[in-house]
Amino acid sequence: MAYRLFEGKEHAASYWKYRISPSDHLIQQVLDFLEKQKGRPFELAVDVGCGSGQGTLLLAKHFASVVGTDVSPAQLEVALQHVKEPNITYKQCVAEELPFADSSVDLMTAMSAFHWFDRPRFLREAHRVLKPRGCLALLNYTIDMELSHPDCCSHTLNRVCQEFYAALQPYRSPHLGPSSIELYREACESLPYPDKEWQECVWVRRPMPLSSYMGLVESFSSYQALLRDDPQKATSLSQDTCQRLMTIMKVTSAETEVAVAVKYFYLLACKPEEA
User: pTM to 2 decimals?
Assistant: First the structure.
């Protein structure tokens, strides 16, 4: 079954503000795979579970048309606020029932969303709508992000981060298991496509204020579950973690810039010509 989370307006706004989109390099890996398998021109890309649309925007300059789909009206409302490109449109629908004709899509992406879908149904739907030699790209990143700050011991900083993540682990959805990377590995093994590529360690590094790093972790489903269960405990955990990090960094403002390293993994797969 599919899981519906992240649908509130405040949570949708935090997605746009804090979530880290794939790097240009990572998107280029996807495009290179598509070009190698199918060739140009790139006509239609569909970004499923697009949320507030950061990933959708990255595809716009490479395709004649890009459609972002999501089940959440609040997420799509945020996405629509940031559309400047005329070739992007958004549609509200579930990932397992997409409003596209058979064999009509060049590239289908799901960026940090596939783990919430009814995965077998979604993969069948992706197979239906992809053109022969069209490609599927499933991208996600792990929660174990790493911080660094000048003149500061990264090991000490990241020990605090690991304690933060460990405190959230009991609130993680059972649907995801201990690590969502296993769900993507399973998808890679189950897809009967001969042409596919698996990569599980692509680091994306972004400078941001410490407050944005905290906002990023707070946007995760496990923190949101804790916040619903015990708002005071969630707020105290976040505030205490932030204060400990500032103490190690020897700073007094959460607006101090840190470098955040996020570990991405991805599955790329090409629908065969005869399928």
Answer: 0.90
